[in-house]
């Protein structure tokens, strides 16, 4: 259901702020904030989990309780991505004033254009591809409006909702920066009640009930995760200190949260379909998401502490990650039709799952590499094309957590 920077010039360290240069008016802008390399690790591992979830969902039988239990632990992608989205938006803004018009003009094309392009690609694939779906114009336009041209595009739709309200959200976060816990407590209770209603309750029979099947497409459903990311960016120094000084304790917290979430899943299996018991919009998924946020962030800080081995590969992977996310269902559906799908598998299910994971990751990466170097880079990858002789000014502007993060993981 979801996550950087262009390489720094040779004369500047990759993790250093870019030097300030005078503008035409003579003013010296503030230097960009340092790139957070640990966020790259969080994003890439979350993308891997998303590919894993989709591969398992379509290659293993829905009645398989063990694999549904695995899904319970891996379906943290959307929550982590929305937390990361809130994090990088607030981190990039820093303490500077934010112009809503400038923000929207800069951000929306980087997500709206790929949304329209890939909605069109998937619509054509469904009509002319191996499935030969018969889609009416009404269906096509409705899918475009609701993010249902393909099952993962809702993420871009929700991200656009977040972009729309972010100028107001930033003002709220700044005003409540010194009292985040009451805010998170209230929003967390409301979100938990909403998740409990979705998982265990029934939709009203009136028009309000139409929101229930569309809950995953609505920003308020993920409000607590967005706010967690926003406040984490505001209190980044304190967050890093806690993660460093209490690393072992935080690992135990993550392990305990994951264990409790898995116990809740097995309790539900007694009276529910395994896939319903592992549903992503349920209260217990908050525990899975907390475990993932802690574990992935600690993995990222451990990687940076070891000197960032393979940093060049990580930079390239981060640059392609949003394109991989956009393309991966296309590759996976081709693999399923070729004989890996749970309806007519030509190999054992476990092998089909493994092949689907690897094949989808490799195939989507190849598409991303080609798309990134093409004239269609912006609509296909969310980033302007790189000129042959080096980085464009747009790529330089996208350097760092600020622009690069958002151009790929919208979450």
Mind explaining what this structure looks like?
With 411 residues, the chain is mainly alpha-helical. It has one domain (43-409). 67% of the residues lie in helices and 0% in strands. Helix 1 (37-59) packs across helix 12 (285-305), helix 3 (77-93) packs antiparallel against helix 17 (401-409) and helix 7 (180-200) runs antiparallel to helix 8 (223-234). The longest helix is centred in the C-terminal third of the chain and has 30 residues, at 311-340. The radius of gyration is 21 Å and the shape is globular. The chain starts with 36 loop residues before the first helix and ends with a helix. The model is unreliable at 1-28 and 390-411 (pLDDT under 50).
Cα-atom radius of gyration: 21 Å
Low-pLDDT segments, ≥5 res: 1-28, 390-411
Please provide the ordered H/E string of secondary-structure elements.
Answer: HHHHHHHHHHHHHHHHH
Summarize the biggest pleated sheet.
none
How big a fraction of the residues is strand? under 5%
The computed structural class is: mainly alpha
Number of H/I helices: 17
Gap between N and C termini, in Å?
9 Å
Give the beta-strand count.
0
Count the domains: 1
Helical content (DSSP H or I, runs of 4+)? 55-70%
Label the overall shape.
globular
Compute the average pLDDT.
86
């Amino acid at each position: 259901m979801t996550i950087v920077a262009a390489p720094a010039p040779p004369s500047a360290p990759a993790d250093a702020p870019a030097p300030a240069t005078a503008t035409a008016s003579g003013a010296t802008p503030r230097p960009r904030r340092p790139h957070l390399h640990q966020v790259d690790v969080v994003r890439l591992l979350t993308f891997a989990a998303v590919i894993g979830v989709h591969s398992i969902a379509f290659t293993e039988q829905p009645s398989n309780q063990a694999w549904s239990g695995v899904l319970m632990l891996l379906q943290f992608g959307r929550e982590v991505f929305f937390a990361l989205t809130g994090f990088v938006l607030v981190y990039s803004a820093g303490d500077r004033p934010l112009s809503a018009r400038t923000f929207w003009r800069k951000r929306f094309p980087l997500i709206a254009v790929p949304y329209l392009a890939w909605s069109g690609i998937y619509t054509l694939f469904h009509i002319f591809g191996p499935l030969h779906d018969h889609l009416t114009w009404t269906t096509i336009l409705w899918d475009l409006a609701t993010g249902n041209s393909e099952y993962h595009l809702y993420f871009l739709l929700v991200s656009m909702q977040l972009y729309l309200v972010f100028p107001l959200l930033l003002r709220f976060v700044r005003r409540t920066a010194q009292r985040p816990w009451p805010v998170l407590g209230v929003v967390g209770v409301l979100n938990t009640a909403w998740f409990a209603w979705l998982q265990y309750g029934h939709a009203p029979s009136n028009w309000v009930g139409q929101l229930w099947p569309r809950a995953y497409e609505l920003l308020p459903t993920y409000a607590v995760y967005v706010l967690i990311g926003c406040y984490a960016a505001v209190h980044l120094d304190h967050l890093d200190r806690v993660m460093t000084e209490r690393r072992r304790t935080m690992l135990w917290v993550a392990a305990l949260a994951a264990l409790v979430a898995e116990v809740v899943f097995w309790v539900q299996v007694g009276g529910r379909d395994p896939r319903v018991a592992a549903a992503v919009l349920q209260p217990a998924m908050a525990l899975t998401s907390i475990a993932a946020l802690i574990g992935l962030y600690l993995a990222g800080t451990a990687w940076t502490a070891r000197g960032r081995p393979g940093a060049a590969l990580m930079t390239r992977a981060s640059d392609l990650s949003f394109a991989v996310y956009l393309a991966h269902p296309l590759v996976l559906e081709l693999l399923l039709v070729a004989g890996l799908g749970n309806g007519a598998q030509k190999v054992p299910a476990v092998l089909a799952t493994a092949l689907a994971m690897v094949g989808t990751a490799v195939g989507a990466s190849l598409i991303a590499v080609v798309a990134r170097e093409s004239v269609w880079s912006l609509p296909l990858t969310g980033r302007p094309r790189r000129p042959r002789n080096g980085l464009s000014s747009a790529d330089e502007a996208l350097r760092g957590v600020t622009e690069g993060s958002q151009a790929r993981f919208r979450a």
